[in-house]
Amino acid sequence: MCGIVGYVGRSEAAPILLDGLRRLEYRGYDSAGVAIVDGDRVETRKCAGRIAELAKLMTARPPTGTYGISHTRWATHGKATDQNAHPHFDASGKLALVHNGVIENYQALKDELIQEGDNSFTSETDTEVLAHLVGKLYDASSGNGTSPVQTPKARLVNALRTALQQVIGTYGIALVHQDIPDFIVGARRGSPLVLGVGKEENFLASDVSAIVAYTRDAVYLNDFDVVAVERDKFEISSVAGEGSNYEVSKVEFTDEDIKKGDYPHYMLKEIFEQAGSVRDAMRGRLSPEECTAKLGGLNMTTAELRDVCRVVLTGCGTALHAGMIGEYILEQLAGIPTEIEYASEFRHRNTPMTRDTVVFAISQSGETADTLGAMRESKRKGYRSLGICNNVASTIARESDGGVYMHAGPEIGVAATKSFTSQVVILNLIGLLLGRMRHLSTSEGTQIIAALQSLPEQIEEVLNLSDQIKAIAKKYASASGMLFFGRQFNFPVALEGALKMKEITYLFAEGHPSAELKHGIIALVRPDLPSVFIAPDDAVFSKNVNNIEQVKARKGPVIAITSGEGAGRLAKLAEDIITVPKVPDFVSPILTVVPLQLLAYHLAVELGRDVDKPRNLAKSVTVE
Ligand code: F6R
């Protein structure tokens, strides 16, 4: 989603701003721009399209100056055009502003400005309205003879505050004014913004990965924070003008962690990191002596955990699919009634819940607007609201009552891969912990721990199948689409396989419970539409075989992901068989999903798709 980078220091701002934007490129965008204060005027370059286009503009006419702001835009209000690209200016042309989020009442604010005589709007964006409003308030504060004269810096901060008090919506903002040297201002509500603290230089960014090459000291701003940033100092206050608490923390990862290394794509790198990320999700959290999991971050006493009588899991996209598996896991391991809800539905549905319900918001980024909205709604109603997040500094992580971090390391590829397997591991840890307080015996606990501890090696085994899967992908490169089927714990894996396939290959793909085939989907089966069956050697294997027979009878090609004895039994039925290690059903998705990630990846490469930056997609969806 949109990205912000701001810089004030002693170096040339242009290369830093451009480099920061490139580091945010993976998050998805359709236009980009910079504004740098060059002496006594703001120089802007912006255009629709890739950052490479912006770089060309900046090479043709280099803007010089040591402070400025930059932005990658993912169009919401108005198309992806040069005019709509950020930064936007106020009516005087002196103030430049970039913005992530949505100003919901922008039309009413714009009408008011027009009525007052401001006819200088040049874009269709909500952001330009905000720039005009701040500029108007700043200009009006230049001294009316009645109030004490303020410094231009204080006037600009106050103008921003007053404007934001009129705004309904979400924002992460950075702005500069050409009359106020070496000064940038930022603010956030619902859209992340981080201050990078350097030596004689400071940074603003919507994601710390944009600036981690320059500093690892960061202040993660809270909603309603306003930050005034200079070279060697900064001041954080609230939109209401009060002081704000903050702490400078060390960024968990380094610049090296966000490099592709020898991999051609981040997605492939992250698929191959899964043995390690799954290990990290369990590290220090398994207690073989007590045959259970230790999850201190939940911030719940044993008695409170014992009292949980219902669990609601919520998330979006891949995180939702992990939650769907979590429903099976928690019911099987802990025997606790569990529901999974789309975060976007849950937040507005007013679900009746019992007193002892706990809600888990599952989110890699910890910034997904709907998941955050769902968690806030659950908190508002007084339910214990926990997070399963990767980004430790994220809003969900900070606002939740507790939770479990994934520790998967930065996930840069837009298509979520390692975060999914880490989420399923963590749901198993929660299932084990809650289960051991209920009906699970010590020997059952020990078996679950053994199953979890075997996973990293088993993932390595599956990763070794990459070449086989690549050959299958080549074979189906001209397929018109793909269907995915699975049962029980592997039904959500079918959904996830289909999601990966559509996201990065743009092929039509659908996932269904295998048994739904004959309730309608079978009408789609034809020779150019392969069906992928996730059919490990488990209690429902024979039922999956029946469904595979139904597809074969209609000349549909079948790719089977199986385990144990499955390969032998499917030899005559499936065109292609991918065999993963045989494991208990509660951990099975962690292995069966890997071939699906690789299948989507290799097929996307075969089709020449931009794997790490698939069209129309953003890494972190911070708008509803
Ligand atoms: C799929 C994908 C998305 C995300 C979804 C939630 O590959 O990346 O479906 O899973 O947008 O994102 P987080 O987990 O950051 O809340």
In short:
The protein has 624 residues and is an alpha/beta fold. The chain folds into three domains: 3-253, Aminohydrolase, N-terminal nucleophile (Ntn) domain (Glutamine Phosphoribosylpyrophosphate, subunit 1, domain 1, 4-Layer Sandwich), CATH 3.60.20; 260-453, Rossmann fold, CATH 3.40.50; 463-613, Glucose-6-phosphate isomerase like protein, domain 1 (Rossmann fold, 3-Layer(aba) Sandwich). The mean pLDDT is 95.
Question: What features would you describe in this structure?
Answer:
Helix content is 37%, strand content 21%. With 624 residues, it is α/β, with parallel strands linked by helices. It has three domains: 3-253, Aminohydrolase, N-terminal nucleophile (Ntn) domain (Glutamine Phosphoribosylpyrophosphate, subunit 1, domain 1), CATH 3.60.20.10; 260-453, Glucose-6-phosphate isomerase like protein, domain 1 (Rossmann fold); 463-613, Glucose-6-phosphate isomerase like protein, domain 1 (Rossmann fold, 3-Layer(aba) Sandwich), CATH 3.40.50.10490. Strands 3-2-4-1-10-9-11-14 form an eight-stranded antiparallel beta sheet, with helices on one face. Strands 5-6-7-8-12-13 form a six-stranded antiparallel beta sheet, with helices on one face. Helix 16 (491-505) links the parallel strand 22 and strand 23. The longest helix has 22 residues, at 442-463. The protein is globular, with a radius of gyration of 26 Å. The structure holds fructose -6-phosphate. Fructose -6-phosphate is lined by residues 316-319, 363-365, 368, 371, 415-416, 499, 503, 620-621.
